[in-house]
Amino acid sequence: MRKLIYLPPKRGGRLDNIMTFCDACEQKANASNASNASNASWNLEFTIQSADEAADEFTHVGLTTLLDKKVVVKLMLNGIGARQEKHVQQLFSKKPHINIVQPICTFECNESPIRWHHHVIVPQQFCSGGPSKFVVIVQEFVKAGNLRTFNGWNDDIWKSIILQLTYSCMEWYESYQFIYDDWHLGNILLDVFEPTKNLTKYKAFGHTWKVNHSETTDSHIRPVLTDFARSSTTSTMKSKHFEPFHLGNEISLVWDMLRHSTQNTKYIDAIDTYCIPIGEKETIVDIIHDVKAFVKCINQ
Ligand SMILES: Nc1ncnc2c1ncn2[C@@H]1O[C@H](COP(=O)(O)OP(=O)(O)OP(=O)(O)O)[C@@H](O)[C@H]1O
Ligand SMILES: [Mg+2]
After folding, report:
1. For the whole prediction, is pTM greater than 0.85?
2. Cα–Cα distance measured from residue 212 to residue 216, given in angstroms and rounded to the nearest whole number
């Protein structure tokens, strides 16, 4: 059994016993690489999105079963996007974050892209050999769909989601050296849960930033990001560091993305006032100032 580097239960991961899943996944990956390809034991049981529907790089997303639980697999052609996705999975498996999908394991195998271009007849074995190197990403299945198809918007949910994402950006920038950079509603999955505590706390730049869940009546929604092929991490960047404007720009993109998910004029006015200015700020102090002003505006 491997040692826990970081204890996820409180801050990350919706899967109980995540390390058990990671170990089972790695064992299965090693076994399928060691055996000859025809014995590959991985089965795709459902296609969520096939490669012909993906916006750019080749990715087939579907479900498989691991330890009697449905988990997501992403079959990616080995390339820049797949390598970055793998790198980010490793970053967040060492140090999970509640608003990032929980990684389980990542491995490589040989496959044939032609087989995976369209929807496949399920179940279908994968990693069964072929001319191309695939990167396989295994991660938790976040069941409640994504924000693009979500139709339960109300003021409390909108406010909660925009605050969780804004504060997450600040934590990722400071504590993970991570910028997401691919903001669209289809990449934001939804975790619906019964709140046991009324607050989610984020820590960044010497402050604790709180999102209050008590206003929502029954269940609460947590946005969970997936799809890291276009994200940035300082360790894979040439310059090896971010500038504050990267963070201002990231928050600006989040606010702009969510502008069309509300009809509340108070929220729209707050976005129209702060969205462009925050993207132009050059210091963290100025960014924090704008975030606080924005939050005050939507809380009024
Ligand atoms: N862990 C997950 N749990 C549930 N659904 C997921 C998960 N990961 C991805 N999906 C669904 O599959 C879709 C495609 O996944 P992803 O965005 O990672 O692939 P992609 O090829 O980069 O897509 P695109 O290029 O269209 O953005 C997502 O929009 C999401 O709805
Ligand atoms: Mg995507």
Report:
1. yes
2. 9
